[in-house]
Protein backbone atom coordinates (compact mmCIF):
# COMPACT_ATOMS: atom_id res chain seq x y z
CA UNK A 1 0.00 0.00 0.00
CA UNK A 2 1.42 3.39 -1.02
CA UNK A 3 1.76 6.31 1.36
CA UNK A 4 -1.02 8.22 -0.41
CA UNK A 5 -3.43 5.28 -0.31
CA UNK A 6 -2.62 4.67 3.35
CA UNK A 7 -3.30 8.30 4.19
CA UNK A 8 -6.51 8.19 2.15
CA UNK A 9 -7.71 5.12 4.04
CA UNK A 10 -6.82 6.73 7.37
CA UNK A 11 -8.66 9.91 6.39
CA UNK A 12 -11.74 7.95 5.33
CA UNK A 13 -11.78 5.98 8.58
CA UNK A 14 -11.43 9.14 10.63
CA UNK A 15 -14.19 10.87 8.67
CA UNK A 16 -16.45 7.90 9.33
CA UNK A 17 -15.44 7.91 12.99
CA UNK A 18 -16.36 11.59 13.19
CA UNK A 19 -19.94 10.70 12.24
CA UNK A 20 -19.94 7.52 14.31
CA UNK A 21 -18.89 9.51 17.36
CA UNK A 22 -22.41 10.91 17.34
CA UNK A 23 -23.60 7.38 18.08
CA UNK A 24 -21.99 7.04 21.50
CA UNK A 25 -23.73 9.79 23.49
CA UNK A 26 -27.35 8.72 23.04
CA UNK A 27 -26.35 5.04 23.05
CA UNK A 28 -24.57 5.24 26.39
CA UNK A 29 -27.23 7.45 27.90
CA UNK A 30 -30.22 5.40 26.76
CA UNK A 31 -28.97 1.82 27.07
CA UNK A 32 -30.54 1.50 30.52
CA UNK A 33 -33.97 2.87 29.52
CA UNK A 34 -35.54 -0.50 28.69
CA UNK A 35 -33.90 -2.49 31.52
CA UNK A 36 -34.54 -0.38 34.62
CA UNK A 37 -36.58 -3.15 36.33
CA UNK A 38 -33.75 -5.65 35.78
CA UNK A 39 -31.09 -3.23 37.04
CA UNK A 40 -33.19 -2.51 40.11
CA UNK A 41 -33.73 -6.20 40.87
CA UNK A 42 -30.01 -6.98 40.55
CA UNK A 43 -28.89 -4.05 42.70
CA UNK A 44 -31.66 -4.46 45.27
CA UNK A 45 -33.57 -1.25 44.54
CA UNK A 46 -36.80 -0.23 42.81
CA UNK A 47 -37.08 0.51 39.10
CA UNK A 48 -37.75 4.16 40.00
CA UNK A 49 -34.48 4.30 41.94
CA UNK A 50 -32.67 2.63 39.04
CA UNK A 51 -34.05 5.38 36.78
CA UNK A 52 -31.54 7.62 38.52
CA UNK A 53 -28.91 6.01 36.30
CA UNK A 54 -30.34 8.03 33.41
CA UNK A 55 -29.93 11.28 35.30
CA UNK A 56 -26.54 10.24 36.72
CA UNK A 57 -25.21 10.00 33.17
CA UNK A 58 -27.03 12.84 31.48
CA UNK A 59 -26.97 15.60 34.09
CA UNK A 60 -23.17 15.83 34.53
CA UNK A 61 -22.86 15.21 30.79
CA UNK A 62 -25.06 18.23 30.14
CA UNK A 63 -23.55 20.49 32.81
CA UNK A 64 -19.94 19.86 31.80
CA UNK A 65 -20.79 20.28 28.13
CA UNK A 66 -21.59 23.93 28.85
CA UNK A 67 -17.81 24.48 28.85
CA UNK A 68 -16.38 21.34 27.24
CA UNK A 69 -16.53 22.66 23.68
CA UNK A 70 -14.54 25.75 24.61
CA UNK A 71 -12.06 23.81 26.77
CA UNK A 72 -11.57 21.13 24.13
CA UNK A 73 -10.86 23.76 21.49
CA UNK A 74 -8.21 25.27 23.77
CA UNK A 75 -6.55 21.95 24.61
CA UNK A 76 -6.67 20.56 21.08
CA UNK A 77 -9.65 18.71 19.64
CA UNK A 78 -7.84 15.55 18.56
CA UNK A 79 -6.07 14.96 21.87
CA UNK A 80 -9.15 15.83 23.93
CA UNK A 81 -11.40 13.43 22.02
CA UNK A 82 -8.92 10.54 22.34
CA UNK A 83 -8.57 11.03 26.10
CA UNK A 84 -12.34 11.30 26.50
CA UNK A 85 -12.88 7.99 24.70
CA UNK A 86 -10.28 6.34 26.96
CA UNK A 87 -12.01 7.53 30.12
CA UNK A 88 -15.35 6.43 28.69
CA UNK A 89 -13.97 2.96 28.10
CA UNK A 90 -12.78 2.63 31.71
CA UNK A 91 -16.00 3.97 33.21
CA UNK A 92 -18.07 1.59 31.08
CA UNK A 93 -16.08 -1.33 32.47
CA UNK A 94 -16.72 0.07 35.96
CA UNK A 95 -20.47 -0.04 35.24
CA UNK A 96 -20.06 -3.66 34.17
CA UNK A 97 -18.62 -4.73 37.54
CA UNK A 98 -20.41 -2.32 39.94
CA UNK A 99 -21.98 -4.37 42.79
CA UNK A 100 -24.17 -1.63 44.32
CA UNK A 101 -26.35 1.23 43.10
CA UNK A 102 -24.07 4.02 44.46
CA UNK A 103 -21.02 2.57 42.67
CA UNK A 104 -23.03 2.05 39.50
CA UNK A 105 -24.30 5.63 39.62
CA UNK A 106 -20.76 6.90 40.22
CA UNK A 107 -19.51 5.09 37.13
CA UNK A 108 -22.42 6.52 35.14
CA UNK A 109 -21.44 10.02 36.29
CA UNK A 110 -17.90 9.42 35.02
CA UNK A 111 -19.30 8.14 31.73
CA UNK A 112 -21.32 11.29 31.30
CA UNK A 113 -18.41 13.59 32.15
CA UNK A 114 -16.03 11.95 29.69
CA UNK A 115 -18.56 11.87 26.87
CA UNK A 116 -19.35 15.56 27.24
CA UNK A 117 -16.09 16.33 25.43
CA UNK A 118 -16.84 14.38 22.25
CA UNK A 119 -20.16 15.50 20.77
CA UNK A 120 -19.57 19.29 20.57
CA UNK A 121 -16.03 18.90 19.24
CA UNK A 122 -17.16 16.48 16.56
CA UNK A 123 -19.99 18.80 15.51
CA UNK A 124 -17.65 21.79 15.33
CA UNK A 125 -15.18 19.83 13.20
CA UNK A 126 -18.00 18.75 10.90
CA UNK A 127 -19.23 22.32 10.46
CA UNK A 128 -15.72 23.62 9.80
CA UNK A 129 -15.19 21.12 6.96
CA UNK A 130 -18.61 21.46 5.29
CA UNK A 131 -19.76 24.18 2.85
CA UNK A 132 -22.58 26.29 4.29
CA UNK A 133 -25.07 25.28 1.60
CA UNK A 134 -24.62 21.60 2.49
CA UNK A 135 -24.41 22.00 6.27
CA UNK A 136 -27.95 20.80 6.95
CA UNK A 137 -27.38 17.58 5.02
CA UNK A 138 -24.07 16.90 6.80
CA UNK A 139 -25.68 17.51 10.17
CA UNK A 140 -28.48 15.20 9.07
CA UNK A 141 -25.98 12.38 8.55
CA UNK A 142 -24.54 13.09 11.98
CA UNK A 143 -28.08 13.06 13.32
CA UNK A 144 -28.66 9.68 11.70
CA UNK A 145 -25.76 8.24 13.66
CA UNK A 146 -27.13 9.81 16.83
CA UNK A 147 -30.48 8.26 16.00
CA UNK A 148 -28.74 4.91 15.54
CA UNK A 149 -27.44 5.26 19.08
CA UNK A 150 -30.90 6.14 20.32
CA UNK A 151 -32.55 3.24 18.49
CA UNK A 152 -30.03 0.52 19.21
CA UNK A 153 -29.51 1.37 22.88
CA UNK A 154 -32.84 0.06 24.24
CA UNK A 155 -32.72 -2.97 21.95
CA UNK A 156 -29.16 -3.87 22.96
CA UNK A 157 -30.09 -3.28 26.59
CA UNK A 158 -33.18 -5.45 26.31
CA UNK A 159 -31.32 -8.27 24.55
CA UNK A 160 -28.52 -8.12 27.11
CA UNK A 161 -31.04 -8.28 29.96
CA UNK A 162 -32.28 -11.62 28.66
CA UNK A 163 -28.86 -12.97 29.74
CA UNK A 164 -27.31 -10.29 31.99
CA UNK A 165 -27.98 -6.57 31.70
CA UNK A 166 -24.32 -5.84 32.49
CA UNK A 167 -23.29 -7.18 29.08
CA UNK A 168 -24.66 -3.99 27.53
CA UNK A 169 -21.76 -2.08 29.05
CA UNK A 170 -19.23 -4.34 27.36
CA UNK A 171 -20.74 -3.25 24.05
CA UNK A 172 -20.37 0.39 25.08
CA UNK A 173 -16.74 -0.17 26.07
CA UNK A 174 -16.02 -1.80 22.70
CA UNK A 175 -17.51 1.13 20.77
CA UNK A 176 -15.46 3.62 22.80
CA UNK A 177 -12.28 1.62 22.23
CA UNK A 178 -12.73 1.49 18.46
CA UNK A 179 -13.52 5.19 18.14
CA UNK A 180 -10.59 6.13 20.35
CA UNK A 181 -8.19 4.09 18.23
CA UNK A 182 -9.39 5.59 14.95
CA UNK A 183 -9.39 9.20 16.19
CA UNK A 184 -10.69 12.25 14.31
CA UNK A 185 -9.54 13.95 11.08
CA UNK A 186 -6.41 16.09 11.25
CA UNK A 187 -8.45 18.96 9.82
CA UNK A 188 -10.13 19.20 13.22
CA UNK A 189 -6.99 20.79 14.66
CA UNK A 190 -7.00 24.54 15.22
CA UNK A 191 -5.09 26.73 12.80
CA UNK A 192 -1.86 28.28 14.12
CA UNK A 193 -2.43 31.82 15.34
CA UNK A 194 -6.19 31.36 15.71
CA UNK A 195 -7.71 33.42 18.56
CA UNK A 196 -8.15 31.64 21.89
CA UNK A 197 -11.78 30.47 22.23
CA UNK A 198 -13.73 32.33 24.92
CA UNK A 199 -16.78 31.00 26.75
CA UNK A 200 -18.47 34.42 26.72
CA UNK A 201 -18.62 34.27 22.92
CA UNK A 202 -20.79 31.16 23.21
CA UNK A 203 -23.19 32.47 25.87
CA UNK A 204 -25.12 34.91 23.69
CA UNK A 205 -28.90 35.43 24.04
CA UNK A 206 -29.52 33.81 20.65
CA UNK A 207 -27.49 30.70 21.52
CA UNK A 208 -29.22 30.39 24.90
CA UNK A 209 -32.67 30.64 23.32
CA UNK A 210 -31.77 27.92 20.82
CA UNK A 211 -30.44 25.88 23.73
CA UNK A 212 -33.69 26.14 25.69
CA UNK A 213 -35.59 24.97 22.60
CA UNK A 214 -33.20 22.01 22.40
CA UNK A 215 -33.87 21.29 26.09
CA UNK A 216 -37.63 21.31 25.55
CA UNK A 217 -37.43 19.44 22.27
CA UNK A 218 -35.29 16.57 23.43
CA UNK A 219 -36.68 16.37 26.95
CA UNK A 220 -40.19 16.03 25.54
CA UNK A 221 -39.29 13.67 22.68
CA UNK A 222 -36.25 11.39 22.92
CA UNK A 223 -36.09 12.00 26.66
CA UNK A 224 -39.43 10.25 27.15
CA UNK A 225 -38.15 6.81 26.16
CA UNK A 226 -38.17 5.71 29.80
CA UNK A 227 -41.85 6.68 30.14
CA UNK A 228 -42.71 4.76 26.97
CA UNK A 229 -40.90 1.77 28.49
CA UNK A 230 -42.84 2.15 31.75
CA UNK A 231 -46.13 2.35 29.87
CA UNK A 232 -45.18 -0.60 27.67
CA UNK A 233 -44.80 -2.73 30.80
CA UNK A 234 -47.69 -1.29 32.83
CA UNK A 235 -50.33 -1.06 30.10
CA UNK A 236 -49.28 -3.82 27.70
CA UNK A 237 -47.10 -6.20 29.77
CA UNK A 238 -44.19 -6.24 27.32
CA UNK A 239 -40.95 -8.14 28.08
CA UNK A 240 -37.53 -6.40 28.14
CA UNK A 241 -36.82 -7.35 24.52
CA UNK A 242 -40.29 -6.27 23.40
CA UNK A 243 -39.89 -2.96 25.22
CA UNK A 244 -36.54 -2.51 23.53
CA UNK A 245 -38.04 -3.15 20.10
CA UNK A 246 -40.80 -0.62 20.76
CA UNK A 247 -38.33 2.06 21.83
CA UNK A 248 -36.10 1.27 18.86
CA UNK A 249 -38.72 2.67 16.50
CA UNK A 250 -37.89 6.24 17.53
CA UNK A 251 -34.25 5.91 16.52
CA UNK A 252 -34.95 3.86 13.39
CA UNK A 253 -37.16 6.68 12.15
CA UNK A 254 -34.30 9.09 12.74
CA UNK A 255 -31.82 6.88 10.90
CA UNK A 256 -34.09 6.64 7.88
CA UNK A 257 -35.02 10.31 7.68
CA UNK A 258 -32.21 12.39 9.26
CA UNK A 259 -30.35 13.06 6.00
CA UNK A 260 -33.61 13.91 4.23
CA UNK A 261 -34.51 16.24 7.09
CA UNK A 262 -31.11 17.90 6.75
CA UNK A 263 -31.76 18.54 3.06
CA UNK A 264 -35.14 20.06 3.90
CA UNK A 265 -33.46 22.37 6.42
CA UNK A 266 -31.04 23.56 3.72
CA UNK A 267 -34.15 24.68 1.77
CA UNK A 268 -36.63 25.99 4.37
CA UNK A 269 -34.31 27.13 7.15
CA UNK A 270 -33.65 25.98 10.69
CA UNK A 271 -36.48 27.82 12.46
CA UNK A 272 -39.24 26.47 10.22
CA UNK A 273 -37.89 22.95 10.63
CA UNK A 274 -37.77 23.22 14.42
CA UNK A 275 -41.37 24.46 14.57
CA UNK A 276 -42.56 21.58 12.39
CA UNK A 277 -40.81 19.12 14.67
CA UNK A 278 -42.00 20.73 17.90
CA UNK A 279 -45.69 20.95 17.06
CA UNK A 280 -45.83 17.60 15.28
CA UNK A 281 -43.83 15.92 18.02
CA UNK A 282 -46.12 17.27 20.73
CA UNK A 283 -49.15 15.74 19.04
CA UNK A 284 -47.41 12.38 18.63
CA UNK A 285 -46.23 12.28 22.27
CA UNK A 286 -49.80 12.92 23.41
CA UNK A 287 -51.00 10.02 21.25
CA UNK A 288 -48.27 7.65 22.49
CA UNK A 289 -49.16 8.41 26.10
CA UNK A 290 -52.94 8.12 25.94
CA UNK A 291 -54.06 5.68 23.23
CA UNK A 292 -54.76 2.15 24.45
CA UNK A 293 -53.84 0.32 21.23
CA UNK A 294 -50.23 -0.91 21.16
CA UNK A 295 -49.97 -0.64 17.37
CA UNK A 296 -50.98 3.03 17.48
CA UNK A 297 -48.47 3.72 20.26
CA UNK A 298 -45.72 2.06 18.21
CA UNK A 299 -46.54 4.10 15.09
CA UNK A 300 -46.76 7.35 17.07
CA UNK A 301 -43.40 6.72 18.75
CA UNK A 302 -41.83 5.92 15.37
CA UNK A 303 -43.19 9.14 13.87
CA UNK A 304 -42.00 11.07 16.93
CA UNK A 305 -38.49 10.02 15.92
CA UNK A 306 -38.92 11.95 12.66
CA UNK A 307 -40.18 14.99 14.55
CA UNK A 308 -37.18 14.71 16.85
CA UNK A 309 -34.81 14.96 13.89
CA UNK A 310 -36.48 18.18 12.72
CA UNK A 311 -35.82 19.64 16.17
CA UNK A 312 -32.33 18.20 16.73
CA UNK A 313 -30.84 18.87 13.29
CA UNK A 314 -32.65 22.20 13.18
CA UNK A 315 -31.13 23.58 16.39
CA UNK A 316 -27.67 22.36 15.37
CA UNK A 317 -28.00 24.04 11.97
CA UNK A 318 -29.24 27.23 13.61
CA UNK A 319 -26.23 27.60 15.89
CA UNK A 320 -23.54 26.28 13.54
CA UNK A 321 -24.86 28.24 10.58
CA UNK A 322 -24.76 31.56 12.43
CA UNK A 323 -21.73 33.86 12.59
CA UNK A 324 -19.57 33.78 15.69
CA UNK A 325 -15.95 33.34 16.87
CA UNK A 326 -16.56 30.22 19.00
CA UNK A 327 -18.93 27.90 17.16
CA UNK A 328 -17.55 24.89 19.01
CA UNK A 329 -18.40 26.51 22.33
CA UNK A 330 -21.81 27.63 21.04
CA UNK A 331 -22.86 24.18 19.88
CA UNK A 332 -21.48 22.82 23.15
CA UNK A 333 -23.89 25.07 25.08
CA UNK A 334 -26.84 24.04 22.90
CA UNK A 335 -26.00 20.34 23.22
CA UNK A 336 -25.58 20.77 26.98
CA UNK A 337 -29.08 22.14 27.30
CA UNK A 338 -30.42 19.45 24.97
CA UNK A 339 -29.06 16.65 27.14
CA UNK A 340 -30.04 18.53 30.29
CA UNK A 341 -33.61 18.15 29.10
CA UNK A 342 -32.96 14.44 28.66
CA UNK A 343 -31.47 14.26 32.16
CA UNK A 344 -34.23 16.20 33.89
CA UNK A 345 -37.08 14.29 32.24
CA UNK A 346 -36.82 11.16 34.45
CA UNK A 347 -36.65 12.99 37.79
CA UNK A 348 -39.38 15.48 36.91
CA UNK A 349 -41.81 13.28 34.99
CA UNK A 350 -41.56 9.96 36.86
CA UNK A 351 -43.49 11.41 39.86
CA UNK A 352 -46.09 12.86 37.47
CA UNK A 353 -46.44 9.50 35.73
CA UNK A 354 -46.84 7.77 39.10
CA UNK A 355 -49.86 9.97 39.85
CA UNK A 356 -51.30 10.03 36.33
CA UNK A 357 -49.66 8.13 33.44
CA UNK A 358 -51.45 10.28 30.86
CA UNK A 359 -50.29 13.51 32.50
CA UNK A 360 -46.70 12.28 32.32
CA UNK A 361 -46.98 12.54 28.53
CA UNK A 362 -49.40 15.45 28.13
CA UNK A 363 -47.42 17.91 30.26
CA UNK A 364 -44.19 17.78 28.19
CA UNK A 365 -46.24 17.76 24.97
CA UNK A 366 -47.96 20.99 26.00
CA UNK A 367 -44.71 22.71 26.99
CA UNK A 368 -43.08 21.75 23.70
CA UNK A 369 -45.96 22.93 21.52
CA UNK A 370 -46.33 26.29 23.28
CA UNK A 371 -42.80 27.36 24.21
CA UNK A 372 -40.68 26.23 21.25
CA UNK A 373 -42.37 28.59 18.73
CA UNK A 374 -42.03 31.49 21.18
CA UNK A 375 -38.33 30.95 21.90
CA UNK A 376 -36.79 29.84 18.60
CA UNK A 377 -34.99 32.84 17.02
CA UNK A 378 -35.27 33.72 13.36
CA UNK A 379 -32.60 32.42 10.99
CA UNK A 380 -29.52 34.60 10.61
CA UNK A 381 -27.33 34.83 7.53
CA UNK A 382 -23.77 33.52 8.02
CA UNK A 383 -20.93 35.99 8.12
Summarize the structure in short.
The protein is an all-alpha fold and 383 residues long.
Helix content: over 70%
SS content category: mainly alpha
The span between the termini is: 42 Å
Structural Rg? 19 Å
Shape: globular
Question: Which structural traits does this protein have?
Answer:
Growth Hormone, Chain: A; 383 residues; globular; 0% strand; 80% helix
Describe the structure.
This protein has 383 residues and is mostly helical. It has a single domain (14-184, 197-375), classed as MFS general substrate transporter like domains (Growth Hormone, Chain: A), CATH 1.20.1250. Helices cover 80% and strands 0% of the residues. It contains 16 helices and no strands. The longest helix is centred in the middle third of the chain and has 29 residues, at 240-268. The N and C termini lie far apart (42 Å). It is found in: Cell membrane. This is Multidrug resistance transporter, MFS superfamily protein. One of its GO terms (molecular function) is transmembrane transporter activity. It is a multi-pass membrane protein. It comes from Rhodococcus jostii (strain RHA1).
Ordered list of secondary-structure elements with their pairings:
Elements: H1 3-30, H2 36-43, H3 47-50, H4 52-75, H5 77-97, H6 101-115, H7 119-128, H8 135-161, H9 167-182, H10 205-219, H11 225-236, H12 240-268, H13 270-290, H14 294-320, H15 327-355, H16 357-375
Helix pairs in contact: 1-7, 1-8, 1-9, 4-5, 4-6, 4-15, 5-6, 5-9, 7-15, 8-12, 8-14, 10-14, 10-15, 10-16, 11-12, 12-13, 12-14, 13-14, 13-16, 14-15, 15-16
Pfam families: MFS_1 (PF07690)
Protein name: Multidrug resistance transporter, MFS superfamily protein
Subcellular location: Cell membrane
Amino acid sequence: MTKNSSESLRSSLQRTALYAGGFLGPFGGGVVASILPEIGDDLGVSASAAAGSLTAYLLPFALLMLVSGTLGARWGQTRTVRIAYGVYLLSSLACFVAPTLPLFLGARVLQGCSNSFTTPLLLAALAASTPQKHLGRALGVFGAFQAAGTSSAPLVGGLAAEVDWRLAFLVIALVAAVLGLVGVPDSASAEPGAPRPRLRDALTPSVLRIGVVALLGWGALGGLSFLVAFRAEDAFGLSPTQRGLLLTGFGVAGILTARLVGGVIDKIGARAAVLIGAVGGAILVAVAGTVSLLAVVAVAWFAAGIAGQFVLVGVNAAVLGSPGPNRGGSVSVVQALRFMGNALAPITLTPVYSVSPAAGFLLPALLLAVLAPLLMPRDRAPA
